[in-house]
Amino acid sequence: MTTLEVRDLVKEFTLRSGLRRSTLRAVHKVTFTLVPGRTVAVVGASGSGKSTVARMIARLEKPTSGTITALGPDGEPVRDRAYRDHVQMVFQDPFASLNPFHSIEHHLARPLLLHGRAEGREEVREQAAQLLERVNLPTALMDRRPHELSGGQRQRVAIARALAPGAQVIVADEPVSMLDVSSRLGVLNLLARLQQEDRLAVLYITHDLATARHFSDDILVMNRGRIVERGPADAVILDPHHPYTRTLAAAAPNPELRGRLRSAEPEPKAATDRDHLTYDHDAGRWIDIDADQPAAA
Amino acid sequence: MTTHNPPPRTAPPAPDAARPVLTVRDLNVVYRGDRTVHAVKDVSLTLHRGEILGLAGESGCGKSTLAYAVNRLHEWPAEVSSGTVTFHDRDGHDLDLLALRDEELRRFRWSKLSMVFQGAMNALNPVTTVRAQLEDVLTTHRPGMSKQQRRARCAEVLDLVGVEPGRMHSYPHELSGGMRQRVMIAMALLLDPQVMIMDEPTTALDVLVQRGILREILRLRDELGFAVVFITHDLPLLLELSDRIAVMLRGEIVEYDTAETLYRHPRHPYTRQLLESFPSLTGERGAFLRATGPASPPAAGPAPHDQARPAGSTR
Q1: pLDDT grade, residue A256 (50/70/90)?
Q2: Spatial distance between the Cα atoms of B140 and B49, rounded to a whole number of angstroms
Q3: Which of B192, B209, B231 is at the close of a domain?
Q4: Average confidence score pLDDT of chain B
Q5: Which pLDDT value is given to residue B288?
Q6: Residue A120 contacts B, CB cutoff 8 Å
Q7: Residue A116 exposed, middle or buried by CB count within 10 Å (0-12, 13-18, 19+)
Q8: Does B98 share its domain with B70?
Q9: How far is the alpha carbon of A41 from chain B, nearest alpha carbon, in Å?
């Protein structure tokens, strides 16, 4: 059973500079499939298009071309309004994504009511309490406001809110990069546990290769809007083929390589001859998505 | 751990042990209020010339409070309750920073000790150009400089941090996050300081930009010979970058050693916990719950979400 299929996704933005106009292709022919109980990580530097992919899946941006199809348990495509029950997003900044004027209960009650998951005060409160318990928060937080919570607690509320409409697909855009180190693993472990309990499909957007490797099953590496390498997490990180993936892996802090910063040798530059190619670890070969070859999902 | 256990004072040999530039002795900072918060407790540190000292710890541990105390930026309700901060000038004079009066303090700040603030990329004034903000530092501290000299110096520091000097006419929003961060570092370099305090200078940046900036800092350190206090919660980064590291927990320095020793033989359990909070890119999964394979059953047992949380964390 497939939960979400993304095919040949393209996003172009129009840039205006005075009277001149140009288009920027932020996402170029991105194809992948999310299935229940599996996590796919999208890694890349700032501006690589990974957040644009997330925003298109959450229907916050309209794709220029390509399709995003969510399939329900019955195999039928999920349409319009139901899509928003089906696919939910967790944003990067838990300080900005919760409304400071509203209580935690309100944040959970709104999606429960809007998506018809609960009716009446009692039922809503009961379900909101259950949601808080699922994300390991005490139900006593229900009447608090966001500013009374720590970053990690807020991000848990954001996750509970995403679960409220009964989401099957969670798009987590850098869910822990704004959090303190000590709460990062807690939030990721929570997502992993919920995912396995509910058989959720998770798209994990990050620039942290280490958590991408440990937290996900498959990794897509993006550079300038293109997927340049894809495959099982360990294969991509431990045996990177694309020069860009290697650059990215080398940039992560590594105490074992103390002193390399001091060396005079210049930063390794990614070769450009393979920029338009994708290395697919499952297929075990390079793929040119522009050459009408089917890109294996 | 007892509260007043003195931090390990047996400071390891530094690159240039004979020439300290900044000495902090038994510093205490409190926040007065309904309940007095003891934010920095008996902290002693020595920063040597050309040294990069890492200050690690999570949010709320007092690391920024300590940096602010050294730069005398605290206002009521924060108060330095005891201790000394001594600056050893290049010309051999010692300055008692906590005793500086208004005008002395104004002259000291930025010219001898500068700071790159947390969230530096949002610290620039959005309504004036980068050039105006850089030149402002020079008109204040170097009133004798001519317009041409100021312009040339601004171009010079921008060039140092790898920002094309032509960009000085830009407004902050026209620059990327990494460039704004570099502009802030350039601003901290303007007066050729002997100490630079960097408070989480790369936290919001992606790894590639971060690496570029770290290289820049090390190169500048080698060329200009200033000392750096690098504050971050990213311990792996500090282990790679700094000469010595002080780990802070609830206002106290619980471990203070060379990066090498701290990495190979962490003594304090909190240091070990911090190290474990970062999954290794190529190594084991560490404290990660997630089992391998897609078909693994749901994790059994009580929710382990707090497994990796070091004791006493506030978040």
Answers
A1: confident
A2: 26
A3: B192
A4: 80
A5: 57
A6: no
A7: exposed
A8: yes
A9: 14
Q: Is the C-alpha dihedral spanning B212, A272, A208, A68 positive or negative?
A: positive
AA letter at A118: A
Instruction: Give me the phi and psi of B312, to 5 degrees please.
Output: 80, 10
Residue A22 in this model has a pLDDT that exceeds 70: yes
Same domain assignment for residues B59 and B128:
no
More confident residue, B45 or B205: B45
Q: Are B65 and B77 in contact (CB under 8 A)?
A: no
**pLDDT digits over A25-83, tens only?**
889 999 999 999 899 999 988 778 888 999 999 998 899 999 999 888 777 888 878 88
B119: left (phi over 0), alpha (psi -120 to 50) or beta: left
Q: Name the domain boundary from B176, B192, B208.
A: B192
ipTM of the complex: 0.71
Class of domain A4-291: alpha beta
Residue of A nearest to B218 (CA): A262
In a domain, B1, yes or no: no
Q: Residue B186 sits in which domain range?
A: 120-192
Q: Which residue of B has its CA nearest to A192?
A: B290
CA–CA separation, A132 and B48 (whole Å):
50
